[in-house]
């Protein structure tokens, strides 16, 4: 059984990575080949994000519900490991995308490296704690479908009136949903996670040198997310105020 699990594990990750690589190349060379060279990489990245985000929510949710021993220190199940491999393949592919096309975007590169550290150590080093990692993954990807549509529309809104209308229509609900998930639900779950690990609930299973970086990575991700969405709300308010003043005039 152990040998079979090792064989399956050695096949699953290369399969997922090849899948995301093919989707990216299809997007870059076929789907978006007529787009501006500056937007082709961004659109191709959004394409693989579409194939990762919602599936990760569904797979992650299914893996969590199927686990009868849910808890911050519970052993990783085979289903959970599959989801972790799926997300590892996506983040590695997107990391390569940023390194190749946007090497100066240090923030996103650092984010992907930190995320990969959390997923890979959970999957291959401690083999425990997938519950917390997958809950955070589900929360992070819950708004990805809307975000990808918003990003694509935003990239075309200056030259396409329909894209501009889609962008304007999506902005308020996307901002609101993102604010709730990243500003309230995520921090609350993070608080429960810190309390559990700090109290020694995973002693002997998830060492301090593993869970402390996990917490630091998630805290920084939440902090950056809150700053990002706050700036978007400010920009949204300024744009709406300017349009209102123009109408009054």
From TrEMBL:
<feature type="transmembrane region" description="Helical">
    <location>
        <begin position="174"/>
        <end position="191"/>
    </location>
</feature>
<feature type="domain" description="TLC">
    <location>
        <begin position="38"/>
        <end position="246"/>
    </location>
</feature>
<dbReference type="Pfam" id="PF03798">
    <property type="entry name" value="TRAM_LAG1_CLN8"/>
</dbReference>
<keyword id="KW-0812">Transmembrane</keyword>
<protein>
    <recommendedName>
        <fullName>TLC domain-containing protein</fullName>
    </recommendedName>
</protein>
<keyword id="KW-0472">Membrane</keyword>
<keyword id="KW-1133">Transmembrane helix</keyword>
<feature type="transmembrane region" description="Helical">
    <location>
        <begin position="211"/>
        <end position="234"/>
    </location>
</feature>
<feature type="transmembrane region" description="Helical">
    <location>
        <begin position="78"/>
        <end position="99"/>
    </location>
</feature>
<feature type="transmembrane region" description="Helical">
    <location>
        <begin position="106"/>
        <end position="126"/>
    </location>
</feature>
<dbReference type="InterPro" id="IPR040327">
    <property type="entry name" value="At5g14285-like"/>
</dbReference>
<dbReference type="GO" id="GO:0016020">
    <property type="term" value="C:membrane"/>
</dbReference>
<dbReference type="InterPro" id="IPR006634">
    <property type="entry name" value="TLC-dom"/>
</dbReference>
<feature type="transmembrane region" description="Helical">
    <location>
        <begin position="43"/>
        <end position="66"/>
    </location>
</feature>
<feature type="transmembrane region" description="Helical">
    <location>
        <begin position="132"/>
        <end position="153"/>
    </location>
</feature>
<feature type="transmembrane region" description="Helical">
    <location>
        <begin position="6"/>
        <end position="31"/>
    </location>
</feature>
